[in-house]
Design a protein that fits this description.
Distance between the termini: 56 Å
Number of helices: 19
Order of helices and strands: HEEHHHHHHHHHHHHHHHHHH
Low-confidence stretches: none
Number of strands: 2
Strand content: under 5%
Helix content: over 70%
């Protein structure tokens, strides 16, 4: 262990994160020991899901923090290709919830789907710890190493595992509350806080180990985190009150056939992640298919339920715009930070913890704000919150560009502007992501609950692929990132997003009417 007298900023940040992780584990133990069915006014099951998802996000975001650096520094892909692979990976992570959600809705049930997804994720993160040839400087030789197939397999397992876990664990949160319960938005914000506690601590600890001790150390810790999340979910099953079981009795052979579908999906994704151009066509074809199916189901419903589907489609359609910008964090913004920001000795990957730390600090304030406004009839509608989210993410890039240019294009960008871009993106995220999760579970018909949640994540997938294409563009013709070109692209997408936000805010009163909130009934 390094002498504390020699610690730099990165060492201290990692030590503080380790202490914070221990503190959250202590709090979790106290909650687990309580006999009451409610904790701070919410069902105890919410906190089982909080801690299970916290560990899952610890592993996922820890690995994500290292991924673009691993692609460019270990596997020696150029910046443009690294961004494209990163975007393809994150987009597939958000496509597979359509499969996981559909199988859970029809046959498997949310609890079994989450467990199966957790098992796949644990194997995927642990496979990431396997490295190939060391010290090879030629990109073609490096990428010809047979070990890269283990890397693609690890990504495929994580992608499919997330598909089974991600949509379904969010649905279970909604099942713990009545449809008209005023605590729903607050519950999802608390749950979202758990997501980001894991994301912050995972990014710091996994990123720190990966960049200082070696890639396998970081990825190995991510795998351990996923195993812990799986254990918590299994032990906490009674707190879920049997509300996430299969919709009808499921035979053992039928259950294993469904798991076989998941394994087959891993093989398909293993192929797709290597051929990113195929993914774009897949997104278009499946997107049109999903839209057609959703409209088909909508027109079989009575007027109010049908219009709620239209409101859902409006909200979902905004996902690619927001996430296309937001997800620069793990791609082009991370590379920009590595190359052009005065980091003061802090490893690049640790900067991705800024967003989840802001979430942890601000989520309780937003949860309280929505409840306070809601009780007084002043809470903005979900469409209006989405418009505000787009305003903030657009401004974040414009502020970042202004800051980078203010000190001179030849100078290193002050780290202050990295904190500012994440701050505005985080407040925007809190106006969109937990609110969107709540709206999907509230407005969707019961028989389409997980499918609609899968569609929500699917359009997030489109946003992630768009993010990869934006990141690829920052590499220009050479494939290596240019500071001037990156700032020009950031400026353009910032102004376009502000224009879209203005239109969304103008339309929000009409979309709110489609939601028919006054006639929602408990199921």
């Amino acid at each position: 262990m390094k002498d504390m007298a020699l610690w730099n900023e990165g060492d201290w940040i990692a030590a503080i994160a380790a202490i914070a992780l221990f503190a959250f584990l202590v709090v979790g133990g106290v909650i687990a020991g309580r006999k009451s069915e409610e904790v701070i006014g919410h069902p105890r099951g919410l906190f089982v899901l909080f801690y299970a998802e916290m560990w899952e996000r610890f592993s996922y975001y820890g690995m994500r923090a290292l991924l673009i650096l691993y692609l460019t520094k270990f596997w020696l892909f150029n910046d443009a290709k690294g961004n494209l692979i990163y975007g393809a990976y994150t987009s597939l992570v958000y496509i597979t919830p359509v499969l996981g959600g559909y199988l859970a809705d029809r046959w498997l049930g949310q609890r079994k789907a989450v467990f199966f997804g957790g098992v796949l994720l644990a194997f995927g993160h642990l496979f990431m710890a396997y490295e190939g040839m060391q010290g090879v400087a030629d990109p073609l030789s490096k990428q010809g190493d047979p070990a890269i197939n283990v890397f693609w397999l690890a990504l495929a397992l994580i992608i499919v595992g997330s598909g089974f876990l991600k949509a379904n664990i969010s649905v279970i949160v909604g099942k713990l509350y009545r449809m008209t319960d005023v605590r729903r938005d607050a519950a999802y914000t608390i749950f979202y806080m758990g997501v980001n506690v894991g994301a912050a601590l995972g990014t710091i600890l996994v990123g720190y180990l990966g960049e200082t001790l070696g890639w396998s150390w970081g990825f190995g810790l991510a795998g351990i985190g996923m195993v812990l999340g799986l254990i918590i979910f299994v032990i906490g099953r009674p707190a879920l009150l049997e509300r996430a079981e299969p919709p009808k009795p499921l035979t053992r052979s039928g259950e294993f056939r469904l798991y076989g579908v998941g394994i087959a999906a891993v093989a398909v994704i293993w192929f797709l992640i290597q051929y990113q151009s195929v993914i774009q066509n897949l997104l278009i074809v499946t997107g049109v298919g999903m839209l057609g199916y959703t409209l088909y189901e909508a027109f079989k419903l009575p007027k109010e339920a049908r219009e709620r589907i239209f409101a859902i489609l409006f909200l979902i359609a905004l996902n690619p715009i927001f996430w296309g910008l937001f997800e620069q964090a793990g791609g082009s913004l991370s590379l920009y930070t590595d190359k052009y920001v005065d980091r003061g000795g802090v490893p690049t990957s640790l900067f991705q913890s800024i967003n989840p730390i802001y979430i942890v600090l601000l989520a309780p304030l937003f949860a309280g704000l929505w409840q306070w406004l809601g009780k007084r009839g002043l809470e903005p509608s979900a469409p209006a919150k989405f418009g505000l989210a787009l305003v903030q993410v657009g401004l974040s890039f414009l502020v970042f560009v202004w800051g980078a240019k203010a000190v001179g294009i030849e100078a290193m960008t002050p780290v202050l502007f990295v904190f500012l871009i994440y701050l505005l993106q985080t407040t925007g995220e809190l106006c969109l992501s937990p609110v969107g999760l709540s709206a999907m579970t509230r407005l969707a018909p019961l028989h389409l609950g997980s499918f609609i949640m899968g569609a929500w994540f699917y359009m997030t997938a489109v946003g992630n692929f768009v993010a990869g294409k934006i990141g690829e563009a920052t590499g220009g013709e050479s494939g290596e990132m240019s500071k001037e070109l990156t700032l020009a692209i950031y400026s353009k997408i910032g102004w376009i997003t502000l224009g879209v936000a203005a239109v969304v805010l103008l339309l929000s009163p009409f979309v709110k009417k489609w939601m028919h909130l006054g006639t929602l009934e408990d199921r």
